[in-house]
Task: structure prediction
Amino acid sequence: MKTILTIVASLLIIVLAFLWYSGAFTSVNVEETLAGGYKVAGLEFTGSYSKAGEYIEKVDKKLKKLGFNCSKGFGIYYDDPKTTSQEKCRGFVGNILEEKDLNKLLEIKSIGLKIDSIPKSKAVAVQFKANTFLSYAIGPMKTYPVISKYINENKYKVLYSLEVYDMPKKRITYMMLISAQ
Result:
């Protein structure tokens, strides 16, 4: 019996440590910032936002064949999944292009990717560490309620949600771009 309790306690400690490392117990801070100013390449999709990662992987695969680094991903999410059915949610996901790659726009278009710009805009944002694959599931649950509360308290109008996945820094920035008041 003592051995079983030791094993269960050890497993519980491991699970809690993994959840902690993944950000489950992290507090988040909201800030107003200027976001955007990016040239991006990606794919549009309609459906559950949980499928965004699959589309980002498709974009990465195509861009890596052309020699791109693919170190900064993005996701634009136009609809609120709380008020829009999953099958009607619209998104645009892919990679933020580096300055040195902007001369390859025709090549990017030729492999079936959409090129677009994300203009600079005022945003409400939260930074979240992406230490594990689970961080990508925990992040939205931790950040969006806090961002939404801040937006409602300040009576901002949301244009869309933007997520930036910074792989080298292991950081996800969750943002809601807002219109000027």
User: Anything to note?
Assistant: The first strand starts at residue 31 and ends at 35. The chain has one domain: 28-178. The two ends are 64 Å apart (CA to CA). The CA atoms of residues 21 and 75 lie 23 Å apart.
